[in-house]
Specification:
194 residues, alpha+beta, DNA Primase, Chain A, 2 domains, four-stranded antiparallel sheet, 6 helices, 4 strands, extended
Length: 194
C-alpha cells in the first residue's frame, strides 16, 4: 500500500494560506518558534509511516519465504515460480521504501566526493539571475543555453530556469553543468565559490 506524503508539503503558498486562514478566523498566526516543532513532528510522523510500511513488507517477505519452502517440498513448480515473482516484487517495494527512509531521515548523510546535502542545497539557492550573461527584463531574457534570437524565450521562476524554445529546464547546478561543461561535483563547488 503506497502512502501519499503530498499533504506534508509546506511550500511558500501553503504557509501563506495558513497565515491567511488564521487572520480570517482571528487565530494567532503561526510563530517562528512553533515552526521547528511542527517540522519535527511532521518528520517523525512521516518516518513512522515509512517504518510501518517497511515492517509490513518484511512480514510479507517472511510469510512468502515460509510458503516457498512448503511448495518446494511439495514439488509444485508453478507455485514456486509465482511465489518467487511475488518475492521479487516485494523486495523491489522494500528498496523503494528504504530509499525514501534514507531521503526523509533527519540524520546527516555521508559526504560523497566531499559534497554534502547541505552544500547541494546551498548551491541550488544561489540566485539564478546572477548566473545569466544578460539581465532579465520582466523575468525573461534570451536563452543562454542555445543562444536563440528571441529575447523572451528564457524565464526564471522559483530559482529555476526554463527555455520555451529549446525546452531546457533546470536549477543552478544543471545550468552551470550545461553552460560550462562541468561535472555535478564541480558545478556545486563552483556555485559555492561565488
Amino acid at each position: 500500500m503506497s502512502k501519499d506524503f503530498s499533504y506534508y508539503d509546506m511550500t511558500h503558498a501553503t504557509r501563506a494560506k495558513v497565515v491567511q486562514f488564521a487572520k480570517e478566523n482571528n487565530y494567532p498566526a503561526p510563530s517562528s518558534t512553533l515552526t521547528p516543532i511542527f517540522v519535527s513532528l511532521v518528520t517523525r510522523h512521516k518516518l513512522s509511516i515509512i517504518m510501518g510500511q517497511i515492517d509490513e513488507m518484511i512480514d510479507r517477505l517472511l510469510v512468502l519465504n515460509a510458503r516457498l519452502d512448503e511448495v518446494v517440498e511439495e514439488g509444485n513448480l508453478v507455485a514456486v515460480v509465482l511465489i518467487k515473482d511475488r518475492l521479487n516484487e516485494e523486495k523491489a517495494k522494500l528498496r523503494v521504501y528504504e530509499r525514501l527512509l534514507e531521503k526523509e531521515s533527519p540524520m546527516p548523510r555521508k559526504e560523497t566526493n566531499g559534497i554534502t546535502d547541505a552544500m547541494i542545497e546551498r548551491a541550488k539557492e544561489y540566485p539564478f539571475e546572477d548566473l545569466l550573461p544578460e539581465p532579465l527584463k520582466l523575468g525573461r531574457c534570451k536563452c543562454p543555453i542555445h543562444g536563440g534570437s528571441n529575447p523572451q524565450s528564457f524565464s526564471v521562476r522559483n530559482n529555476r530556469g526554463r527555455c520555451h524554445s529549446c525546452s531546457w529546464y533546470g536549477d543552478t547546478i544543471k545550468y552551470v553543468m550545461d553552460t560550462e561543461g562541468r561535472s555535478f561535483v564541480e558545478a556545486v563547488r563552483r556555485l559555492l565559490q561565488w
